[in-house]
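Q: For a teaching handout, I want to show students what a protein-ligand complex looks like in token form. Below are the inputs, and the small molecule is FE2/S2 (inorganic) cluster. Please produce the holo structure.
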Amino acid sequence: MIYELSFYICKNNSKHVESMKDKVIIKREDFIFAKKLIWKMRNKNTRFDTKEFMTKGREYLYEYAEKNVGPLNPERRAFLKGLLIGIGVFAVASAVPLINSLNPQEIYLKSFPWMIIVDSNGNPIEASKIPVNDPEILLFEYPMLGDITFLLNMGDENNNPVAVPPTEVLIPETGKTYHFPGGVGPYNSIVAYSAICQHLGCVPPEIHFYPPQYFKVGGSTPNYIPPDAYQAAMQAKAISVIHCDCHGSTYDPWHGAAVLTGPTVRPLPYVELYWDSSTDYLYAIGMNPNAPPIMDHTSDLEGVAYLDGYDESTGCPKFLLKKGQGVTNCYTTLQNEGNTFEGGS
Ligand code: FES
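A: Here is the structure, written as tokens, with FE2/S2 (inorganic) cluster included.
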């Protein structure tokens, strides 16, 4: 599922993250509920109205959550109330790093699924229609719920698609390297990287892609680039970057999201894509076990919830397909073959 976030000025979450000295154990269902709630709050189509919240108070949050995520029982109301007390009302919509710091029960995939990438209406996206250097942030989740991933169509200053070559990526933390296979699609220009900063876990819009038109030294929020990040990118011949506003980590999307500037010491892991040239559809098909795992994971196969998208009447995962299958084939073929998931979300 693709999510789109517009660039906008955002709060810095670092204080919340750094103040989390101890992990808090919460119920897995509450964790998933909180993550869904925050996604809705950040989505431009369902954005949380802070003015309304100031007028109506907590009741507005409850109404909003019921409308956009699901029914609230007294226990869940109490959980939301506790969340407000814990992080402050105006930080709720920027609280993903804090939510990620909580510690729900983990579940595991047996192996990486093939997953067709679809838009918010459930239709497969067509690779040749992904805008080049899009200033909107295109995200999908893979391989588990909450594992948000950038989908980027890389291009030059004139927005012509440009191939992203395969490369070896250095992990500064260990000195080891791993292979990045390069871009896919009609111009080999489409790449996918984890959108969770490898430093302390900030997520979009704090971490975002800076297309060539916004990539200049200085600039203003949300496109401010510190001089050291700009210099590092110039040296690497990167005309666009991924930069995290929380503490300044910068990644090179032209070279496997390698580290350009710290404080991160780990590149953003990539999601391997497959482009079916006969349909123009894109599939997420796996992650490299030699790359650093997604932030706060010990393995990319670990998570707190399976992806949404199950059809409850058939039990078939709607968007988990095999190479060459169309969406409609899922119901007739895949459910008889088993799949890599161990259950629904
Ligand atoms: S979370 Fe610290 S730089 Fe991104």
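A: Two things your students might notice: Helices lie at 14-18, 28-42, 50-56, 58-68, 74-87, 96-101, 227-235, 329-332. The longest helix spans residues 28-42.
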